[in-house]
Amino acid sequence: MLLVSLIIFPVFFGHIVRVMRGEKPAPPVEWSLRSFADGIKLLVIWFFYTLPAIVAGSLLVGYVVVMYEMEGVKAIEPVLPEIIGGFLVVFVVYIFTALVANLAGVRFARERSFFAAFSIRKLWGLVDRLGVWEYVVAVVLISAFSNAVVTVIMLIPVDIVMFALEVLAFIPLAVFQARYYSRIYDLATE
């Protein structure tokens, strides 16, 4: 059912919201209007928080492409350190926003309020209770695990098999990450 709900992706993310609520045992898949609406809200929350990094990254890539199209590689070489620095800044902005976006998603799920996800002060209070570096390490660990799984699958030489396994791996990884961030949220609120 999760595989089918992935096709109607807001329903899948609605299920992720239910997992983030901390329901035990894991909730059954529910195809409902509420699940669809919760999935859309979660996607909007994640998009809102990652928007600064998306805009900054798009502007930087656009700048590089325009320079390359106008004058080729010779125009890029003199400003290469600035371009690399720009990408590092975009990466830091993305990490910063992702740290908040994950807890915002869980807060939305727990409070059952869309606007609860945008209380920056309360979200940073949670990060402060966890410890900033401990939380960063927790996020890096789950990201490294997920990326390692995806990388191993990408080594498969047959494209259709690789794609099918990527889709199949996405489901348990998304549910695992939702449960992981839900548990982190619980630790911050205990």
Q: Portion of residues in helices?
A: over 70%
Could you say which structural class the secondary elements and strand pairing correspond to? mainly alpha
Secondary-structure element pattern, one letter each: HHHHHHHH
Question: How many beta-strand runs?
Answer: 0
Give the CA-CA distance, first to last residue: 34 Å
Q: How many individual domains?
A: 1
What Rg is obtained from the alpha carbons, in whole angstroms? Answer: 19 Å
Main β-sheet: number of strands, strand sense, barrel status? none
Shape field:
globular
Q: Assess the beta-strand content as a share of residues.
A: under 5%
Describe this structure in words.
- The protein contains eight helices and no strands.
- The chain is globular, with a radius of gyration of 19 Å.
- Helices cover 83% and strands 0% of the residues.
- It has helices spanning 2-7, 9-20, 33-71, 73-76, 80-111, 120-130, 132-154, 159-189.
- The chain has one domain (2-189).
- The chain is an all-alpha fold and 190 residues long.
- The model has no long low-confidence stretch (mean pLDDT 84).
- 19% of the residues are buried.
